[in-house]
Amino acid sequence: MTYHRDHHTFGLVYMDRIWCNKQRYRMKLGFQHIKYILGFAFLMGFQIGSANTWTVCGTCENSSIKETILRAAPHDTLLIEKGTYKEFELLVDKPLVIKGIGYPIVDGERKGEIFRVISDNVTLDGLFLINVGVSYTKDNAAIRVVKSKNFQIQNMVLEQLFFGIYLEKSSHGKVYHNRIIGNAVDEYNSGNGIQLWYSSDIDVRKNHVQGTRDGIYLEFSDRITITDNVSMDNLRYGLHFMFSNHDIYSNNTFENNGAGVAVMFSKFITMKNNTFRKNWGTAAYGMLLKEINDAEISGNTFEENTIGINIEGSNRIKYLNNDFINNGWAIRVIGACYTNSFKGNNFLYNSFDISYNSKLNDNVFEGNFWSSYTGYDLDMDGIGDVPYRPVKLFSYVVNRTPETIVLLRSLFMDIIDFSERVSPVFTPDNLKDAQPLMKKRS
């Protein structure tokens, strides 16, 4: 009995020790788990809370923008208080928010570029930049962004500049609500307002560009969206782009530029609801299309331009629901242009609606309104019963001998235009609108 009692007691003690050891092990695991969680939370809290805000002002400890950028850590914010900072070549090489309070002036004193961004995730907001250095060997810009992503340039004012905003090999950024005012006199010593070179996926929106060489310029830049901008009084083009595909331009105004808008060597372009106005001059036009394919041009207004659209070597383009009002030439076709369609457009009081320099035509003109159409509509279906031939013989003559434009309103020209419409000899006999609208499209 004693043996069994001792054995039983020993068993109970042994089992109790095992239970205690398990409890200690569980507690140890619990403490380690809690320690891990607290350490992780502390680390995250430290990282989140580590972003600092730096105040820069003339009387502050941080009085230099350049030096404060050097001191700042990634993801910090610099608040630049109102004042004048004579600084240039400000290198932003880390993610930062640089924001002006009351539009502080950063004066480059014409010594070079002002901001150069080479990091992702940079925001420049609310600064007044002036006096960019003019150079004949370098494209100095008020703001240059190089090989960067996810940037924002917004609410900036740029004046007395060479180039304004220059995006180079950058992507997924936003250029929003900036005012860029240049004083360009000659092309050789002036730059562009907003320039994109080898860039992609950029949103250019609500900017005002004035007095530069080209208001907005793109080269080798794809999937660019340009919306709600005003580009006016620029020396050469309001918008100029080459070798740039899959871009969208909508609700912009291009007014009183040297030669309007030039669109060249690109494809899959959409231009909708823009206004091209008062681009006058011996070589001026609202829009130049050269070697453009597979595009849509719709809902635009071309008003009081020497030439509304000048087309050369451009194919498979849809011209839909545009208004051509009081232009010299509404549409001037030069060179090989095939498989284009012109539908639902209003041609109102232009000197020449269509100018064409070839007898060959496979383009479609259908369902447009022509203010000079004098046909009738007996069945009252809103479509003229007599086809309209928009190409005048006089436009053919003027293309070859520009000096004859002085005879524009003469009775003799009216007579030969009428005879050409009755029996086409020099103009394409199949270039006609078989369904001209009796009322303009509203």
TrEMBL record:
The chain crosses the membrane at residues 34-54. It holds the Pfam family NosD. Residues 80-219, 226-386 form the Carbohydrate-binding/sugar hydrolysis domain. Keywords: Membrane, Transmembrane, Transmembrane helix. It comes from the Bacteria. NCBIfam families: NosD_copper_fam, para_beta_helix. This is Nitrous oxidase accessory protein. The lineage of its organism: Bacteria, Pseudomonadati, Bacteroidota, Flavobacteriia, Flavobacteriales.
